[in-house]
Amino acid sequence: MNSNQPSLINVPINVGLLGAGTVGGGTFTVLSRNAAEITRRAGRPIRITRVADKNLELARRVTGSQAAVTDDAFAVVDDPAIDIVVELIGGYGVAKELVLRAIANGKHVVTANKALLAVHGNEIFAAAQKQGVMVAFEAAVAGGIPIVKAVREGLSANRIEWVAGIINGTTNFILSEMRDKGLSFADALADAQRLGYAEADPTFDIEGVDAAHKITILSALAFGIPMQFERAHVEGISQLEADDIRYAEQLGYRIKLLGITRRRADGVELRVHPTLIPARRLIANVEGVMNAVLVQGDAVGPTLYYGRGAGAEPTASAVIADLVDVTRMHTADPEQRVPHLAFQPDAVEDTEVLPLAEIETSYYLRLRVEDKPGVLADITRILADQQISIEAMIQREPNEGEEQTDIIILTHRTREKHAAAAIGKIEALPVVKKKVIRLRMEELG
């Protein structure tokens, strides 16, 4: 160090915390408990000096009189003594105003708000770039798993080919319960709510929206493209039936809600849906509320990141890691910092996110048909007409007296539009008695 330059080793970084809930409380706790270790890593102390929450009693209980408490979050982002604002409020509304105000005030921002970034990230990053401040968001994806840093920095030598992740613990718990206990979706959801793994209104989780926010962020990081949440295909697990989980198991597969993004020559796939994965894959064996993200790079091959995707201290771990990074780079030339979306801002490409009809994958099809000769021939002819080849097929033996049975077909890879056309023609057959159940399959090999 230049001897004429003042040392900052004993000058604390002052943090304003917005939101004293589960993650805010965990952040305060871990930062206090591991203060000495964190200071050794960051090079100077990191202290939460102001906390904003509408529930002042909660904020006081969390801070234990170690920080000033207010119910006015704007007072925190406007405080000239605050260096970094940690936004843990969530949502798209006031959180966006606060983050943009903090940036305008020249403050760095750490956020766990995946919804905000997936929908408004392009605007937020552009504002931060203009002001020369950092927006760090490790905690926005997969809780305590350092997947953002891995994709943005650790794999920067690679041309990333695809990312597939179990990135919502609530849905993974529900699917684990359905498989292990043979429960219906409704009963497994009720278990998740009773245990505190699902919200009273679980829509964002069970309909795939939360996972879509996260895979939108990972897609931008992996391929150097803007956030494009509005172009993602989003499909949840609320319509999933226990029969299909059982049939998948018999065929050597497990069903997981996956966020998938894949680079193709003609664009990028960006989708969330229930997916059959071979049971032999490590990611297929991730159970309960755990998260896992599989990243395929051209140089490194497949890499798997596993851990807790939510909770007070796992998410706080990611928030504080961002605080350490921002503290280290606080006085650095903005041009020398790691770019928000991994690629230099002027090198981000507005690559097209492909419509659902153009994605390429394999399919699981369950057909309820009359048990009579010639049915299979009609179905296979329709698939062949759409150039869809069959990988495997099973036909359930009907019980005595039954006149209908289930046929399960696994296809080789094809385009969604071809599968949809085939399904439409199959459903028009008089021998097919219900809508065809279609689930997508990924080998992830």
Features:
single chain, 445 residues, alpha/beta, Rossmann fold, Dihydrodipicolinate Reductase, domain 2, Alpha-Beta Plaits, 3 domains, eleven-stranded mixed β-sheet, six-stranded parallel β-sheet, 17 strands, 36% helix, 24% strand, elongated
CATH architectural name of the largest domain:
3-Layer(aba) Sandwich
State the major sheet: 11 strands, mixed
Calculate Rg over CA atoms. 25 Å
- Number of separate helices: 15
DSSP strand content? 15-25%
Domain count: 3
Task: Kindly state the percentage of residues in helix.
Answer: 25-40%
CATH topology of the largest domain: Rossmann fold
- Catalogue the unreliable spans: none
State the secondary-structure class. Answer: alpha/beta
Name of the top-level CATH class of the largest domain: Alpha Beta
CATH superfamily of the largest domain: NAD(P)-binding Rossmann-like Domain
Distance between the termini: 48 Å
Report the principal-axis shape.
Answer: elongated
Q: How many strands appear in the DSSP assignment?
A: 17
Mean pLDDT: 94
